[in-house]
Design brief:
With 675 residues, this protein is an alpha/beta fold. The protein is 40% helix and 15% strand. The chain has 25 helices and 21 strands. The strands form 5 sheets. A 7-stranded mixed beta sheet has the order 10-9-11-12-14-13-19. A 5-stranded parallel beta sheet has the order 1-2-3-7-6, with helices on both faces. A 5-stranded mixed beta sheet has the order 16-18-17-20-21, sandwiched between helices. Strand 2, helix 6 and strand 3 form a beta-alpha-beta unit. The chain is elongated. The structure holds thiamine diphosphate. Thiamine diphosphate (TPP) binds next to strand 4.
Length: 675
Amino acid sequence: MYFYRNNLTNQDLRSIYKALILPRMIEEKMLVLLRQGKISKWFSGIGQEAISVGTTLALEKDEWIMPLHRNLGVFTTRQMPLSKLFMQWQGNKEGYSKGRERSFHFGAKEHHICGMISHLGPQLAIADGVALAHKLRSENKVAVAFTGDGGTSEGDFHEALNVAAVWNLPVIFIIENNGYGLSTPVNEQYRCESLVSKAKGYGMEGIQIDGNNILTVYDTIKGVREYCIKEQKPYLIECMTFRMRGHEEASGTKYVPPHLFEEWSKKDPVQNFENFLIGENVLNQQTIEVIKSEIKQYIEADLQEAYKAAAIVPNSEEELNDVFANKTEVGNRKSEVENKKLDENGLWVVDEGPTKEIRFVDAIQQALYQSMEQHENLVLMGQDIAEYGGAFKITEGFVEAFGKARVRNTPLCESAIVGTALGLSLAGFKSMIEMQFSDFATVGFNQIVNNLAKIHYRWGQNADVVVRMPCGGGVGAGPFHSQTNEAWFTKVAGLKVVYPSTPYDAKGLLMAAINDPNPILFFEHKGLYRSVQGQVPEAAYEIEIGKAHTVQHGNDLTIITYGAGVHWCLEYIQQHPDVSVELLDLRSLQPLDYTAIKAAVAKTGKVLILHEDSLISGFGGEVSAWISEHCFELLDAPVMRCASLDTPIPFNIELEKNYLAKSRLGEYIEKLLGY
Ligand SMILES: Cc1ncc(C[n+]2csc(CCOP(=O)(O)OP(=O)(O)O)c2C)c(N)n1
């Protein structure tokens, strides 16, 4: 192994050496603790340290890194206090995730490290978002994401690299090619000659380097960083290395031919660098011993500190409170609303000023437009939303008003765009993603339910993202353009789910969603876009998320619904003036307004829950269960649910009518009235 020291001083080389052996020595200690049962799981990076350490040393301290499970060297080189790292691995409250995450699945804003989720690939697109933030602010910075060779087979790899290339983002993608993905050797993972050859396909530069040579890694990253900043382009680096231990300690290495260990142990990154430094007279046996004994003491002292951590006493209230960021915690709200009047809940008050009769679709457009005016840091992303104005023309004219930098056409890659939105949030931006149809959220599902939803609870980072979900049937659009899939998300802790039914609510709730620093799925029934009108204040205002609305009072029965269901009921009521209905529009499904539900139940004692989604495990099941448990004494009849058929949504208009809950609404009402 040949080391080029370039113009690094002896002092520089010694610092690099210390940074390189720190993760090795920590790991050696952790392996002992693992055997003693003091930590529960360990992913070893032994043999790969040069990549993490060399990369981190080559970056500025405030440049975000998206590491994975073999990148201990990233954490140590960012000088995270060891005692806190140890407490993290012990699962203590004083670690980086209050005991909520294991091994390397945590991040720290103050160190600009974004914690991974287990799914590996999603880290890559987050770097796109951070890099986009740098680009929008004209900052001379890069974002860096790691992947293993196995991870490159995930769609996330393709999507993230493609977005970075198309949007000219300063991202460094680093592949650690260590020969295996768990037990799968690279010849069962990909067929191309080398992974770096994929760079060409994305229209980006790339290089393959010796990942075991710390000076090569350091020098390459320094140069590539300058290139990315100057050229405003991404870059792919394939670091050749080898995993010297099992995938994780319990899984062994039986499947690896022994000669590979022999070959690669000769290329050990620490030993080789040490030999080089001895040859250069930078170090000798004695100085090496001194350095090692200092590090050993440092590790031991911090371990003793970590052992003092008290056992966690679970506190459910604290657990629940940490699922969402609160508005003041994030701190990007106060200055934004200086020119707005706030009510006692801190919401923009409904303006006393003029109102105008507009359609549902116009209300959404107004909310977006005014939010873009209010928040300079708000970015809109979606397929065809720029010049074309989006599939429903909601963002028509936005490019002219706000420019292409903030109104962004995306490639066809929902997963990467949700990841990008999260990266923007890391860097202090807000974003709105328009799913062309809510059905397509399936291909961004992982990023939504595992990354956006869980990140605040896991390590305190908020995801300031609104995903707009044009949904719903009744328009003969078949199984993949008609679903109302809110129940896929209401189950997931960490997501807010909003589903307005009127133009007034749509505008106020969308503005509130954008002001909220948490991830919000905003369902817009596309059948309502152009069929429903209403008076809407012209000025900006918010409606509190989590508050239901009583559409009308009545005495015969209570209908609890949302979205198109509200209009189906109004139609029924109009046709049946003799039936007196208490009609509650939930508006938000998560959080849910239990107080309003209870009051509505109390009003009549007969409850019908109506929704457009199919019956089994639809959101109505949750509402029904809650009512049964908490309002039993108020009921005069069993809680009934009217929902769509448990089939996919058919195309033929007669079949679709038959599918939709609306076709059975009258029947259910009569059944309940007659009980
Ligand atoms: C989406 C997903 N599928 C499967 C796994 C299980 N798994 C964890 S790590 C791993 C292998 C990863 O290989 P590679 O990307 O080469 O990284 P390495 O572990 O070699 O560093 C697998 C299959 C996972 N974490 N996520």
